[in-house]
């Protein structure tokens, strides 16, 4: 018989037994021969199957996988052809609406800013005109007073130099009237009416917009830390010098010194500010009794009097909370503040160029209180706590 008419060549044989690999060992995951599965074979006791059964199983798996791939391809094709174009159109439409919303809102803000700018500039112009008119009125008044005084003086000098004794006596009534007229012209007194009133530019809208702009432009808050030498013995300072915890029992471990508050639960920061714009934040959510603000370095530290009590002297300006009551205090003057909610954090913004101290809520940027003052020296962040804990946020 010729080679062309011979049957298909036999497949690989078992290298160990030389027999056809007609079985599949499920344990070793490989084809084996009948001898491998028999007595003494390496696969005796293993779970085995006929090789053609295993092959048929794999063919069915391939068919199933091909069907799944076909369905997946159809799904992807449909997604690319139908969904993505819609998504693209939706993105274009949504972006256009968002763009219009930004332009609309910023246009409204711009219009409001321009309107407020015009209103405030008109107030500045009006206040400038008022002050100028007051100064002109005073100039006219005192020019006339000078002329009158000069005339009275000239008249009296003329009497003194040209009248004899009898004539001078006869002019006594006139001399009295002239003297009385001169005495009626009082010395000039300084008046606020002659000064430009800077309060004319105060605007809650401008302040809120300015705070929002400042907070958005600042790279971060100041790295404020407590000066441990100033910490009251009723307070415990954390290792990072940012957290103050109130203790009702006075600590005996604190060495007394000239910088330390010995009665009120106060503490000063280690850093002071004397120029520029500065902001820092304090976590106050755990305390129902605290004070946060600024103080001059000459703030007294000793005793239970108001001299060292924050907000009760001329050296300190503080925002305070006691239970549900909030207020701003300076020099013993207390201004109650109506807050809608208790702030979890309190921000302090100090603008030394404008001589302005401002307290705000960091979460919303809402201005809680603004105070204008003439600060006479470098200012230190100052803190007091009489309940739980407050922490400077960095």
UniProtKB/TrEMBL annotation:
SMART domains: PRY, SPRY. SUPFAM superfamilies: B-box zinc-binding domain, Concanavalin A-like lectins/glucanases. Keywords: Metal-binding, Zinc, Zinc-finger. It holds the Pfam family zf-B_box. It comes from the Eukaryota. Residues 203-394 form the B30.2/SPRY domain. GO terms for molecular function: zinc ion binding. CDD domains: Bbox2_BSPRY, SPRY_BSPRY. InterPro entries: B30.2/SPRY, B30.2/SPRY_sf, Butyrophylin_SPRY, ConA-like_dom_sf, PRY, SPRY_dom, TRIM/RBCC, Znf_B-box. The keyword Zinc-finger applies. This is B box and SPRY domain-containing protein isoform X1.
